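Residues determine shape. Next comes a sample protein:
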Amino acid sequence: MDDIVRGRLRDAAEAPATGETTEVLATAGAAVVEQILSGRLDAPVDYLGTADEWLVVVAGGAELEVAGTPVVLTPGDWLLLRAGTSHRLTATRPATSWITVTAPVAPARPTGPGG
């Protein structure tokens, strides 16, 4: 049974009133799957990821700025942020649930003679 990992998402109502909580749901190789439960933000939060990040809003909603462009996410909306993409979380609705999958960027393979 070690080949199967099973779980259940936490209910969005368990989100804190302010800030967020993060739980690792699974790992596969170097990829990490997390659930984030967000409450109200006290202030915008800036990010500059070192890994590719795919995210989907399961419940609630969020407003971001991605490379200076406003992005509004509602349940079912997803976004792929490549490593090195600056983004700012500007607002979240109370009881927002997200799923994120992060994966480090593989180093470039050498090309040319010997590579």
About this structure: Residues 59 and 97 are 5 Å apart (CA to CA). The mean pLDDT is 92. The two ends are 40 Å apart (CA to CA).
